[in-house]
Structures are given as C-alpha cells and as structure tokens.
Amino acid sequence: MAPEKSIGFFRIRSEIVSIPAALSAEVMSRFLVGYPSIGQAVRSGKWLSLGTHPVHTALRDQAATVQWPVGTTEVTIWKGGVIIGTTQVHDANIQDYEIIAAYDAEFHVPDRLKMDYNGSADAWSVGGSIRRERLKKQALAKKFPDAPWHQLPPDWVPIEE
Questions:
Q1: Contact, 3 vs 55, CB < 8 A?
Q2: pLDDT of 85-98, one tens digit each?
Q3: Long-range contact list for 146-153, CB < 8 A, 24+ apart?
Q4: DSSP tag of 33
Q5: What's the distance, Cα to Cα, between the start and end of the chain in Å?
Q6: What is the rounded CA–CA span in Å between residue 132 and residue 126?
Q7: Mind spelling out the 3-state secondary structure of 56-108?
Q8: Is 74 within 8 Å of 87 (Cβ atoms)?
Q9: What does pTM read for this prediction?
Q10: pLDDT digit string (tens) for 12-63?
C-alpha cells in the first residue's frame, strides 16, 4: 500500500507467497481499492493478509491520476489530492496515468489484474489508464457508429492499438 492509500500490484506470479520476491518485482499497476472491500476480501479468504512490510520504492511517491469528464477531451491531473494541471487526453505524457476510480477488492480487482498480467484486445473493459479508456471509446464508436452517445468529439486524436 502506498502512502496515499493506493495499492500496488507486482508483476510476479507464484504458487508460493514470497514477500522478498514480490518487493523485488516491478510494480505492474497501482490503483485505489475501497477499504471496506479489502476487509471483506481478507475475511472471506479471497485476499491474504501478509502483514506489514517496507513500502516498495516505486510506491513511495504519490502517483498522478487523471479525472476525465464525460464528453470532453480535457482532463485534470491530480497528485496528492491537489490539482497539478490540465491537458488533453491525447497528451503523450499522461497515457499511462490511471483514471480516478475506486475498485472493489473481490469483484473488480481480479478481472483488472488478469488484464494487467495477460493483456488482451478487450483490456479496456476493466478500467485503468487513459490509453485503455481511449481505446474503449474508439472501439465503441466503431461498433456503434449510429449511437450519438458513442460519437467521438470533433477534436479527437486517434490512438493506435
């Protein structure tokens, strides 16, 4: 768990729980998980409580996240509960920033982690980065060209898959 209470998930798979191995692995993704759902997941046995350990170096700094209002291409960048700027969704510097959301430990996190580990053509379906959300919007616009709610804004900059 990072200082601002986001949770880091490591790019490691093993049948054996090894804290040193996990803490030496790369951070694969980092996002907010609702606290009540974490407690429920631990009590139900779906998550393991591994105790208290040093914070991974990649999780020590607060992560920038993005708020993207519906129907716009302008986003607000947040860090530490403070707005640090605004930009457009096609800004190359923010493509891997996480969109602000709170995940449920039992219902959302498993699907999200499957996509983070494996990747997939429909990885956008489980939330995540600006890049994933842009791919989702493009796919829906292509699939439903006559639906006004799936039309891309005139200033849309396409993203390559």
A1: yes
A2: 999 999 999 999 99
A3: 153/71, 153/72, 153/73
A4: E
A5: 31
A6: 9
A7: CHHHCCCCEEEECCCCCCEEEEEECCEEEEEEECCCHHHCCCEECCEECCCCC
A8: yes
A9: 0.83
A10: 888 888 888 888 889 889 999 998 999 999 999 998 888 888 888 888 888 9
